[in-house]
Task: inverse folding
């Protein structure tokens, strides 16, 4: 104990101070406040690191307790909403990787955003606030506090995705795209947020509090008492995850979010935003494990998202979009692992002879999900910053205009290669370990014959395997198209040091983070699972890191996945390096319907538009017309008000008064009718 | 120090102490025309009205601080509830008076203008503190009649005349209905004191005349708060009136309607515990609330004039606040009162912004706001904060107050209840819908290209008023306790 833990609230506070400082005084400092943002993120990381060490050496951790401090935020009558910190291993891991990667991204931004002039100030202020959102979310002690930061992030993503809305480097059309992408991201994730809020209201009804501690301690009681309501609440909360972490069918905002600067994409994909949804599942694990059936739905959504979005990456030509789809697909993996883990633990909670084994496998699956989240943060930040470096050098995002760049920009090329190897799941690299654990988690329910949903999980496992193959293929397709073959466009050469050094650091972590985490006792996810065990009288069993490694290499699926990954890389090599291709090959008319259907993102953008324009605006139009014609009762006056009411006065003297009088009668009669109806039905609905 | 001051006040004025704040504001109403006649300078009149109302506000705060509560002549009660509402009305008046002298639509008739504003504030204060139906009625009528004149004061605009006439006619209907309702209740119970009415009905049981009386009052004051289907005047009036007046009416006049509804219906159904028909009336309010918020939000989507859009958004906000009338609990009322305050800073701020931009030469159409962020980054950012706060995005004031208000549908007096969960859900869905039209304005400001690149300059008083509202939106969102406790006490005074 060195006492830093008591100051852990500084972690989200430092970036918000930087937000204010950069916003107010950024213009007067070099780099428009860039150094303020970097310093803020770095200080936040240092405090987070010290606090985490403090936690991991404290009695709290030894006793599997979370460290919590609360103060009253709002008090109404006897109901109290707190604002506080809740630190366990999960929150430590979240704040560590979020602040660390953000620091690197901010450093990188100084090089990348160098030519943005005065707009830099706005950028650095907003990314600082963005980081506050993520760090605040990680340390929150109750769901409402979490929701506040959750929305702060949504707001920042809106502002940042639309960053180039006035002046996109690529012209007006791109500028317009940026604006609609920002709005889409905001509104689509908001759809999830509404569900989350509704879920929280139900939770509040059931528990009478939104504090994590109160809810987790009572989770088992809730399941008994509210057998029908709890699944609804959990499904609604999961809908929030679907929006935020861009799961099927709300996935389509994320590829569009590429319209922002590449560093923002890196921030959204690696360190913040989409990880918030995964964190919500992991954080709510003690609650989620109470509903077996809902967890099957969670796993299915994850599995479907993984393969569905991976398929869209197969023939995309935009380097950032390929990465965006790969994020979606990897998020699907995480949700799949967490869903499967929760499913197994929920079966274990029912007791029976397999209980202990189920807890072991469920815990491993949980670990797999969290570990993949961290590993993904490293390799995806690396890949995005690498792609930013490429875009910076060649001035386009279209991979058809790249090629052969590895000679011109070797650091970018080989660090990105490490990222690709990691995401493809090649041994030693971090992605291998966690991806393997994820697939194993999906396989386990079928393999060991747990529960009724075994077949479903077998299918999910096969889908996961195919996804692994696709991932290896499209990632190396991207790498080969960009860095191999003949040069097709102009290139400025390697990026400056403040961009390449973060790449190198991230490459180191993308290689080693998996092994590092395995070396750490129980992957630091003890606290969450521990609160499940309240009243069970036994500790949660865990494989140690060493046992896990041995386990991984004992399982046959590991080798299948490896073969599939290598096959994917091989096919990509065959198609894009061994056989030279020309740009003609990419024209839509040279391809079949399936290829174009895929390239059009399965018409999801059109579907969204149809829903929002035809359906949403249609309803609004109908209500508006109803309001004007029926409620207002002023059919005659319509043209008058439209023309600005030049002869409005005369209209009042002729038509309006009668109409208004009618309106009063209608209103009173309506109230009377409502009253009578309620009265007749005995006051009940 | 304050204690002895309050004591000497009570000694000197006796019962009048408890209506002293209203009387002081009335003095402002009387002085304004005189001052204008003497000085011919609108700014001096504004300054004097501001100062006098400020004295009244300080007095209210001192009396609240020293717990100098009491009743004057058995008609007006100075209690935590009425004092809090008085502060709200005066806060709105401050914002309005601050920006009016520099606003371009302001009339030459400064004397009348500030006199009317002060009269409205006094009327509202009387209505909020009244304990008998008659006193409530008179207070509301003072407000109404002054408001018609205030709207019509923008004389050279035909839209304003049209709006004023509409407002007058609608107002007359609503007054007639209210009076009809009140007389029926008087006929049944033989008293005008609302608490006695409650007690009497509890003994003798409710009959259909009583119910009709209640419905008459719901309809009558439904006009004041612009609940659907009694809302049709609001967009026209807000669009037609000069913008500071629209803001004043949207934020203060509506709150008076709620204050009165709370007073009457909580007294009848909760304290008096009529016992009969309480649930039925709760559902009536709940259904009106649900319809009001839904219609307000959906219609706001298709507006192209920002004042009309804000007007419909006010309709929706009235729907949210009505949740308290449906739930009839202290918790929900706390939320409603808190939401009224946050609504002052966010909706008031938005209207002041519109007024400022009109002064700077911009139009009222949403498309006129294209590229505002480029022309005036600070004002655009402030407007974004107001709109996002209205949409309920944390950590802004609108989120916090909506959360307390909506959760009031679940926590009914210390216990959780499933009864009004559906209402909370409808409210949550509605506040998500509302983001759509607010975000559209933000998008217009931040994303679309401006018609010209000229910088926008607005007079300093506007900047001050907007800055105050921005501070309110942030502080009330992050640290709600500073007001929540007062709201809690005020709500407790109603039950």
Result:
């Amino acid at each position: 104990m060195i006492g830093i833990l008591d100051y852990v609230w500084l972690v989200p506070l430092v970036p918000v101070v930087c937000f204010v400082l950069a916003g107010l005084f950024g213009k007067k400092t070099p780099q428009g406040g860039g150094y303020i943002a970097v310093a803020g993120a770095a200080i936040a990381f240092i405090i987070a690191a010290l606090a985490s060490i403090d936690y991991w050496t404290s009695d709290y951790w030894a006793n599997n307790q979370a460290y919590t401090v609360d103060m009253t935020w709002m008090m109404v009558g006897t109901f109290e909403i707190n604002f506080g910190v809740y630190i366990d291993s999960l929150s430590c891991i979240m704040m560590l990787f979020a602040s660390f990667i953000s620091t690197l991204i901010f450093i990188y931004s100084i090089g990348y955003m160098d030519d943005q002039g005065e707009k830099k100030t706005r950028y650095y202020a907003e990314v600082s606030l963005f980081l506050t959102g993520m760090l605040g979310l990680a340390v929150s002690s109750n769901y409402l506090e979490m929701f506040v930061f959750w929305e702060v992030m949504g707001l920042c993503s809106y502002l940042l995705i639309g960053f180039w809305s006035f002046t996109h480097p690529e012209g007006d059309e791109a500028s317009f795209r940026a604006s609609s992408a920002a709005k889409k991201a905001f509104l689509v994730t908001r759809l999830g947020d509404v569900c989350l809020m509704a879920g929280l209201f139900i939770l509040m009804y059931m528990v009478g509090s939104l504090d994590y501690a109160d809810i987790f301690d009572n989770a088992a009681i809730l399941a008994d008492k509210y057998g029908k309501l709890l699944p609804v609440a959990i499904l609604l909360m999961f809908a929030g995850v679907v929006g935020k972490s861009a799961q099927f069918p709300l996935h389509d905002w994320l590829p569009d979010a590429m319209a922002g600067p590449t560093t923002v994409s890196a921030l959204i994909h690696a360190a913040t935003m989409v990880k918030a949804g995964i964190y919500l599942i992991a954080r709510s694990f003690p609650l989620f494990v109470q509903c077996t059936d809902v967890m099957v739905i969670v796993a299915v959504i994850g599995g479907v998202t993984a393969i569905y979005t991976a398929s869209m990456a197969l023939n995309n030509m935009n380097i950032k979009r390929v990465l965006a789809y790969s994020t979606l697909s990897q998020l699907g993996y995480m949700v799949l692992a967490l869903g499967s883990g929760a499913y197994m633990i929920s079966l274990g909670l029912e007791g029976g002879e397999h209980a202990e084994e189920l807890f072991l496998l469920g815990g491993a699956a949980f670990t797999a999900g969290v570990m993949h989240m961290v590993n993904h943060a490293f390799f995806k930040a690396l890949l995005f910053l690498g792609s930013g470096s490429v875009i910076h050098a060649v001035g386009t995002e279209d991979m058809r205009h790249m090629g052969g760049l590895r000679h011109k920009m070797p650091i970018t090329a080989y660090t990105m290669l490490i990222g690709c190897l990691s995401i493809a799941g090649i041994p030693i690299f971090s992605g291998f370990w966690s991806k393997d654990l994820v697939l194993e988690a999906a396989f386990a329910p079928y393999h060991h014959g747990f529960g009724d949903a075994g077949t479903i999980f077998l299918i999910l496992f096969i889908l996961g395997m195919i996804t692994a193959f696709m991932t290896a293929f499209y990632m190396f397709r991207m790498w080969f198209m960009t860095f191999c073959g003949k040069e097709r466009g102009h290139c400025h050469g390697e990026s400056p040091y403040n961009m390449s050094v973060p790449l190198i650091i991230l490459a180191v972590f993308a290689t080693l983070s998996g092994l590092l985490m395995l070396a750490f006792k129980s992957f630091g996810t003890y606290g969450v699972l521990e609160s499940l065990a309240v009243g069970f009288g036994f500790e949660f069993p865990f494989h140690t890191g060493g046992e896990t490694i041995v386990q991984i290499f004992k399982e046959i699926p590991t080798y299948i996945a490896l073969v599939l990954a290598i096959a994917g890389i091989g096919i990509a090599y065959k198609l894009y390096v061994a056989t030279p291709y020309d740009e003609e090959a990419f024209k839509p008319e040279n391809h079949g319907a399936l290829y174009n259907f895929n390239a059009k993102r399965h018409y999801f953008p059109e579907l969204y538009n149809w829903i929002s324009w035809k359906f949403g605006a249609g309803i609004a139009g109908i209500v508006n017309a109803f309001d004007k014609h029926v409620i207002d009762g002023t059919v005659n006056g319509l043209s008058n008000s439209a023309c600005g009411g030049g002869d409005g006065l005369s209209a009042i003297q002729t038509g309006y008064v009668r109409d208004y009088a009618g309106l009063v009668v209608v209103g009173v009669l309506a109230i009377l009718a409502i009253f009578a109806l309620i009265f007749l039905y005995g006051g009940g609905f | 120090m304050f204690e002895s001051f309050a004591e000497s006040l009570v000694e000197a004025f006796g019962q009048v102490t408890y209506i002293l704040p209203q009387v002081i504001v009335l003095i402002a109403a009387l002085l304004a025309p005189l001052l204008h006649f003497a000085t011919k300078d609108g700014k001096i009149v504004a300054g004097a009205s501001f100062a006098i109302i400020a004295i009244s506000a300080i007095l209210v705060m001192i009396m609240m601080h020293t717990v100098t509560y009491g009743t004057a002549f058995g008609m007006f009660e100075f209690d935590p509830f009425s004092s809090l509402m008085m502060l709200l009305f005066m806060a709105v008046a401050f914002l309005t008076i601050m920006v009016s002298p520099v606003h371009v639509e302001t009339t030459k008739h400064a004397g009348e203008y500030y006199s009317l504003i002060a009269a409205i504030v006094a009327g509202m204060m009387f209505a909020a503190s009244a304990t008998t139906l008659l006193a409530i009625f008179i207070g509301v009528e003072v407000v109404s009649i002054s408001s018609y004149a205030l709207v019509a004061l923008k004389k050279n605009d035909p839209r304003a005349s049209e709006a004023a006439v509409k407002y007058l006619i609608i107002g007359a209907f609503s007054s007639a209905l209210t009076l009809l309702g009140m007389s029926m209740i008087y006929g049944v119970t033989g008293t005008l004191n609302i608490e006695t009415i409650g007690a009497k009905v509890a003994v003798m049981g409710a009959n259909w005349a009583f119910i009709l009386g209640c419905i008459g009052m719901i309809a009558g004051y439904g006009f004041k708060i612009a609940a659907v289907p009694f809302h049709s005047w609001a967009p026209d009036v807000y669009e037609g009136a000069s913008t500071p007046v629209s803001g004043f009416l949207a934020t203060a006049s509506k709150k008076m309607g709620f204050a009165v509804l709370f007073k009457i219906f909580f007294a009848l159904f909760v304290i008096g515990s009529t016992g009969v028909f309480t649930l039925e009336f709760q559902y009536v309010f709940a259904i009106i609330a649900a319809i009001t918020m839904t219609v307000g939000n959906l219609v706001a989507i298709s507006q192209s004039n920002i004042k009309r859009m804000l007007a419909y958004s006010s309709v929706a906000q009235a729907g949210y606040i009505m949740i308290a009338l449906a739930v009839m609990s202290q918790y929900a009322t706390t939320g409603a009162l808190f939401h009224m305050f946050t609504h002052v800073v966010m909706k008031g701020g938005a209207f002041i912004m519109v007024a400022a931009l009109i002064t700077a030469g911009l139009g009222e159409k949403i498309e006129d706001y294209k590229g505002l962020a480029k022309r005036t980054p600070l004002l655009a950012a402030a407007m974004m904060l107001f709109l996002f706060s209205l949409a309920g995005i944390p950590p802004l004031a609108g989120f916090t107050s909506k959360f307390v208000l909506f959760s009031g549908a679940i926590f009914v007096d210390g216990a959780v209840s499933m009864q009004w969960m559906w209402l909370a859900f409808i409210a949550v869905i509605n506040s998500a819908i509302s983001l759509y039209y607010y975000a559209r304005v933000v998008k217009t400001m931040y994303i679309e290209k401006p018609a010209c690149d000229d910088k926008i300059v607005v007079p300093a008083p506007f900047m001050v008023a907007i800055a105050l509202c921005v501070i309110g939106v942030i502080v009330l969102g992050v640290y709600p306790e500073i007001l929540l406790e007062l709201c809690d006490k005020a709500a407790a005074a109603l039950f």
User: Anything to note?
Assistant: Chain B touches chain A through 81 residues (CB under 8 Å). The beta strands of chain B are 70-72, 76-78, 411-412, 415-416. DSSP finds 21 helices and four strands in chain B. The mean pLDDT of chain B is 88.
